[in-house]
TrEMBL record:
<dbReference type="InterPro" id="IPR036380">
    <property type="entry name" value="Isochorismatase-like_sf"/>
</dbReference>
<feature type="domain" description="Isochorismatase-like">
    <location>
        <begin position="23"/>
        <end position="198"/>
    </location>
</feature>
<dbReference type="Pfam" id="PF00857">
    <property type="entry name" value="Isochorismatase"/>
</dbReference>
<keyword id="KW-0378">Hydrolase</keyword>
<dbReference type="GO" id="GO:0016787">
    <property type="term" value="F:hydrolase activity"/>
</dbReference>
<dbReference type="InterPro" id="IPR050272">
    <property type="entry name" value="Isochorismatase-like_hydrls"/>
</dbReference>
<dbReference type="InterPro" id="IPR000868">
    <property type="entry name" value="Isochorismatase-like_dom"/>
</dbReference>
<protein>
    <submittedName>
        <fullName>Isochorismatase family protein</fullName>
    </submittedName>
</protein>
Length: 209
C-alpha cells in the first residue's frame, strides 16, 4: 500500500474551502533568517520574490498583509525554554538588524507587524483578533522556516478557525528535506499546499468581483 493510499484511506488530504476575504501572512522574513551573513539565515531571495508578488497585489486590492518577526529581550533570551534548545535564535534581539523585515519584502506602513516570541504567529499575539476584526475567512501563509514557524502558524491558523492556504514557492527553509516533509504533512492535515501563481490568480478573481 502506497503512502498516498494510506493517507487517502484515513481521510486526509481533502481540499480547503476558499472564502471571499483573504489575508496574506508573511512569517519571519527578517534579516536574521534571510541575510546569510548571519548563521541563523539561508538564501531566501527566490521565495521572498514570489511572496512579494502576492503581497503587492493583495495590498493594492485592499486585502490585509501581515508580517511577523521574532524579537527577544535579554531576559527572554536567558529564560525561554525554546532558546535552550534552539540557541541560535537568542541572537534575534530587540533593536538589532536581525529582527528587521527584509527590505526586499516591500513592507509598507499600511501593513501590520506582529512581534512574536515563539514559533507560531498566533501564540501570545493578537493576530487572531486582527484577522477576525478584518473579517478574514482565508489565510495565505508564507515565510520561514517551513518546518518551524510556518508549520506552527499554519496549525494554529486552522485551530483558530481560518481556512488556510500555503504556496510552497513562497516558503523557505534551511534544508530541502524538512521543507518537503513538512509541506507534505501540512497538505495532508491542515492546509492546501499550492503555488504563488494559483494564489495570485485566485486573488485577482476576487478583486474583479
Amino acid at each position: 500500500m502506497t503512502q498516498e493510499t494510506v493517507y487517502k484511506d484515513a481521510g486526509f488530504g481533502a481540499n480547503v474551502p476558499r472564502g471571499q476575504k483573504p489575508a496574506i501572512l508573511v512569517v519571519d522574513y527578517s534579516y536574521g533568517f534571510t541575510d546569510t551573513q548571519y548563521p541563523t539565515a539561508a538564501d531566501m531571495s527566490a521565495e521572498i520574490a514570489a511572496t512579494r508578488k502576492l503581497t503587492d497585489f493583495a495590498r493594492s486590492a485592499g486585502m490585509p498583509v501581515i508580517y511577523t518577526t521574532i524579537a527577544y529581550t535579554p531576559l527572554e533570551a536567558k529564560s525561554l525554554p525554546w532558546l535552550k534548545k534552539a540557541t541560535g535564535m537568542a541572537a534575534l534581539m530587540v533593536g538589532s538588524r536581525l529582527v528587521e523585515i527584509d527590505a526586499a519584502c516591500g513592507m509598507t506602513e499600511k501593513d501590520a507587524l506582529i512581534v512574536k516570541h515563539g514559533a507560531s504567529a498566533f501564540f501570545g499575539t493578537n493576530l487572531a483578533a486582527i484577522l477576525t476584526g478584518a473579517g478574514v475567512d482565508t489565510l495565505v501563509v508564507t515565510g520561514a522556516t517551513t518546518s518551524g514557524c510556518v508549520r506552527a502558524s499554519v496549525v494554529d491558523a486552522v485551530q483558530s478557525g481560518f481556512n488556510t492556504l500555503v504556496p510552497a514557492d513562497c516558503c523557505a527553509d534551511r534544508a530541502k528535506a524538512p521543507h518537503d516533509a513538512n509541506l507534505y504533512d501540512i497538505g495532508q492535515k491542515y492546509a492546501d499546499v499550492t503555488d504563488s501563481a494559483d494564489i495570485l490568480a485566485w486573488l485577482e478573481s476576487l478583486a474583479k468581483r
